[in-house]
Amino acid sequence: MPFRVALSGLNAASSDLNVTANNIANANTTGFKGSRSEFADVFAVGAQAIGNGTRLAAVSQEFSQGGVDFTDRGLDLALSGEGFFTLRDAGVVTYSRVGAFGVNREGFVVNSQDQRLQIFPAANNGTFNTGTLQDLQLSTTDSPPQATTTAEFGVNLPADAAPPTIAVFDPNDASSFNHSTAITAYDSLGATHTTTVYFVKDAAPNTWDAYFYVDGNAVGGANQLVYSTFGALSTPASGSFTLPPYSAGNGSEPIALEAQFARSTQFGAEFGVNLLSQDGFAAGRLSNIDVDSNGVVFARFTNGRSEPLGQVALSNFTNVQGLRQLGDTSWGESFTSGDAIRGAAGTASFGQIQSGALEASNVDLTEQLVNMITAQRNFQANAQMISTADSVTQTIINIR
C-alpha cells in the first residue's frame, strides 16, 4: 500500500514540475498565461479513513493581466483588462491575447499564424455594426479628392481705412485696393487653385467691396460688405456670397464656391486675418494606420484625411477557464466556456486597447522558481517513502 500511495505522490510532483517548466519556458512568450497544478486526494469508496494518495485534478490557467511592453509598431496591440482578440482562420474562430499583427500580401491584418483579425465594420452614420464580424483589410486605394465648395474668411478690416487713391480696381495695381488675402481651393480632380480676395474701401461709411480671383482670373464682380456701427457684418444678411462657377480648364467640374464672411469684422485700425478655411482636399495615399483606445482603426492619408476602417472586435466568456487551448497562445470556444460575448474595447466588461504595445507573459519567474524547489522536495520525499516502505518490506521478508 505505501508503494502505491508514494507512487501517486511521485506522479503528482512530476506533473507539478512539468507545469512549472512550461511556465518558465514561456516567461518571454507574448500574451502567455501561466498555469498551476491543482491536486485532489484519493479515497477508496467504503474504505477506512486512510487515503490512497493524490491525483492531478486539473491544470488551470491564470488569466491575470500581463505587463505592457511598448513597441514602435502601430499594429502591435495590447489589451489592458478583460477580453480576447477575435481571429478567423478559414472559417474557424479563435481567440488570443497576442496582439502582434502585421499585413499579408492581400492587405489583411493577420498574426504570425496568418489568422485574420476581426472587426466590427463601419456604418454610414459614424457608428459600427457590432452584430457583424469582418476581416480587417487595409485600403490600398488612394483617398479621393473633394472639391472646395465653401471657403471662410475671418478677416478684420480697419475701421479708419480710406478709399484707394486709384478709383478703378486693378489686381495688378496695389494702389487700387486696400488689402488682400488668399486661400487654396481644390477642384473635383484634386488640383489646387489659388483663390485671392481683394478688399476695396468704398466711399460710403462702413462699406467695402470684395473682388475674387481664381488663378488670376476674375470670378464675378464686386461683392459688397457692409458693417454696423459696432463692427459686425450686416450685409449680406446671410453672411456669404455664392460666386459664379469657375472652369479650371483641366477637365474637372467647375468650382462653385460659397464665400463666407459671417465672422469678419471691422474693428480698430489694422487689417488682420484671423481665420482662413475651406472644405476641399487633394487625393491622398495611405500613410499610416492608427488604433485608438476603443479599438477604432483609422487609415491616415497624406492629404490629412482619416477614414475609420472598423472597430476591433473583442470577445469574452462567462467561464474563461473552460476555454480549449489550441497552442500558439490561442484558445477555442467550448461548451464549458459558454458562448462568446462580443463587444468593443472600453465598453461593458472589456478592457482598453493600447496601440504600439504588446502584453507580456504574466509568469512571475521568482514564484515559479519557488514552485520548482517545492515540487523537487515533494518528489524527493515521496521517493524516500518508497525507499522506507522497501526497507520495511525487506525486514518482514527476513523474519525467520
Quick take:
This protein has 400 residues and is of the alpha+beta class.
- The global form is rod-shaped
Q: Helix segment count?
A: 2
What percent of residues are in strands? 35-45%
**Fraction in helix:** 10-25%
Work out the number of β strands: 29
Taken together, the total number of domains comes to 3
Instruction: Assign the structural class, choosing from mainly alpha, mainly beta, alpha/beta, alpha+beta, or little secondary structure.
Output: alpha+beta
Mean pLDDT: 91
Low-confidence stretches: none
Work out the oligomeric state of the chains in this entry.
Answer: single chain
The rounded Rg comes to 37 Å
Distance between the termini: 23 Å
Largest sheet: 11 strands, antiparallel
Description of the molecule:
The protein is of the alpha+beta class. The chain folds into three domains: 2-64 and 362-397, no CATH class; 78-140 and 285-351, no CATH class; 150-271, Flagellar hook protein FlgE (Tick-borne Encephalitis virus Glycoprotein, domain 1). Helices cover 14% and strands 35% of the residues. It has two helices and 29 strands. Strands 5, 6, 9, 10, 21, 22, 23, 24, 25, 26 and 27 form an eleven-stranded antiparallel β-sheet that branches. A hairpin with a 5-residue loop joins strand 16 and strand 17 (233-235). Helix 1 (2-25) runs antiparallel to helix 2. It is rod-shaped and about 140 Å long. The chain starts with a helix and ends with a helix. The model has no long low-confidence stretch (mean pLDDT 91).
